[in-house]
Batch of 2 targets.
Target 1
Amino acid sequence: MVLGGSSHPSLNAVICDKLGIPLGNLFPYSRQNDIPYTPNKTGTLLSKAANCYSKPDFPYAFESKPQTPHPDNSPTAGFFNGTDALHKDITKMQLDESNSSPTSTQNARFASYGKQTPKRSDTMDSIKSDASTGQRNISSASMTNGTAHENDASTLSVLSKDTSFQPRPGYKQWVAQAGKLVADLITCAGADHVITMELHDPQYQGFFDIPVDNLYGRSTLKGFIQNSIPNYGQAVIVSPDAGGAKRASSIADGLGMPFALIHKERRPTKITDRQNSTMMLVGDVANRTCIVIDDLADTSNTVTRAAKLLKKEGAKMVYALITHGVLSGDAIEKINASHLDKVVVTNSVPQEEHQKRCPKLVVLDVGHLFAEAIRRVHHGESLSVLFQYD
Ligand SMILES: O=P(O)(O)OC[C@H]1O[C@H](OP(=O)(O)OP(=O)(O)O)[C@H](O)[C@@H]1O
């Protein structure tokens, strides 16, 4: 399945058709909402939506039924679900084995789990004590004696019984629950491998219990800078917020270009204060071309406000290079009216309609990256070559 891939419909369809795999979709759920899961909490992005959740006639609730996988209910949560299921299998096989002597290699293997587990209480204790101090030293503990599958058995035992998540009083979860839920749904639906592009945070690969290959759009964006921006060596790469600084600075380092950072503060006290959140520039952009790099533009507030600030600070031209051009709501109108001179996006999101309405929009194709990744996965080849330019 291709996720977050080229959304050029015909291209995706051709890739999937040729390889005999189903066509996937975007994974926009990895960006967390900007409020904790408390309906009456005043937040920023989704506050208005959150307030309407508390109205009695509103048809949806934050907590879905059945409940969203969550560390508090570990039997349904992704990783623990897997280990629980495996643990149950092992226990069942142990019971079977106690009724009849093992006749196959597999039965003999699982029988050894049962025999070894009691002897490993010292190792389990050490893991338990490590967990209580916030450190999991499972790998080193499990290598102290025994074979790999013996270690697996005791580790599974510990994970499913002893390390269930205990929230501290007052602890608020800041997790993209929708992202975890959708990852679990995809896995439950039968996917055994996921290919994504530029997850908002690479850590979101951990939402999945199956292998994930997260591709990057940076090589494509770098190619545009080198081939289409005149005198790009004199330009400045700008990150519009601290969260994207690593992404933008890696491009600046790779091309030997200077780097500037905009500090975006999104901590208003009231819903209506959101537009007043402040942006401050660190770096010199006067009389230079600025290239704003970001992973996504949704409302396009971030890039349009960045462009306004950069022009105010003396920038000659402002390009925005964005991997995922979601461009929802009135984003296109904002871009048209903004100080941005050009907005460059990839076709990880369909751009045909956006292009008709936005003369500043340039679209780069990333279909070949997905095609190569799929080909390599299909033939069991390494994917690392696809990341070497990042
Ligand atoms: O077009 P917009 O609606 O303004 O959204 C785009 C911004 O949102 C994301 O960052 P976010 O605000 O989530 O902060 P982070 O990078 O620190 O996670 C993303 O990295 C962009 O900067």
Target 2
Amino acid sequence: MNPPRVVCFGELLLRLGAPGHQLLLQSPSLDVHCGGAEANVGVSLAHFGHAVAMVGVVADNPLGAAAAGQLRLHGVDTSRVRRAEGRMGLYFLTTGAGHRPSEVVYDRADSAFANARADGYDWPALLHGAQWLHLSGISPALGAEAARATLDAARAACAQGIKVSFDGNFRPKLWERWGGDARAILRDLFDCAHIVFADHRDIGVVLGGEFPQADAQARVDAAAAMAFAAFPRLQYLACTQRTAHSVGHHSLGAMLLGRDGTRAVAPAEELTDIVDRIGGGDAFAAGVLHGLIEGFDAEATIRFGLAAGCLKHSIPGDFNPVGVAEVMALVGEGRFDVRR
Ligand SMILES: O=C(O)C(=O)C[C@H](O)[C@H](O)CO
């Protein structure tokens, strides 16, 4: 098999969702989907034509095998996914409607991934040949070993000249469970990153600043300036900007800022009739990474990322199995054109 261009490291999760807009257990069935923030990015990138490998640990049982099989179906190399004793991480989802927001209940404590020992990963071998490593702030929130493994991965990538893409994905409830020092650990991860997917709130968690500007874009500008000053390796910061008008109607815009002064803004799109927003941020991240890998300019990159993220809202499940042509079709409709 060809060496992967992108390696994604993280937990492969199973989502058990109440069907449609029902409450949990309202009817005797649950819809199952595979997810996990980093896997979602990997699946998108594979659909965009990149060679992607997942690194992680799944339960050594038929559920773990089936989950890894789902990744393979979407073109992701799972030869670096180990099987180990333990359970698969789960999350339960009720999809909101009307005045009722969506809700996630995690059931992932002591999963095979969370319990895997950090010294069980041979990072130089696992990263061999890769140009990018994608990580998120979810893995280190799962426990001390997972945090150590994420840091080891990031540092090994830096040492090998592999670009690290890091999605802040701050999940306070997960951090509270094991009592890890989120700020210190995330700071070390930001320090390795070439690009972070983070907004002013994530930067606030990591660097402790507050961003009182009334304008949402000005808050991100200020946070990015602080991040570029604190993290010399960091070249880009990208984020979406979401306003929720109701459960099914959001506005979604995006920004890409560069250390070199690059500043590209994709104006907000109206998302009506949202089918499933879980994984929207991952679809956006994959779209931005695709633009950077392909050498798009900043405006084309952010428009591609936003279009990919918007498309995800129309697709049930955590993955965004759309290809470049579908995303470009949306970009080309004109609604994603640069507005001057
Ligand atoms: O919430 C998490 O920890 C997950 O990884 C599940 C979803 O796939 C993820 O949130 C989507 O970004």
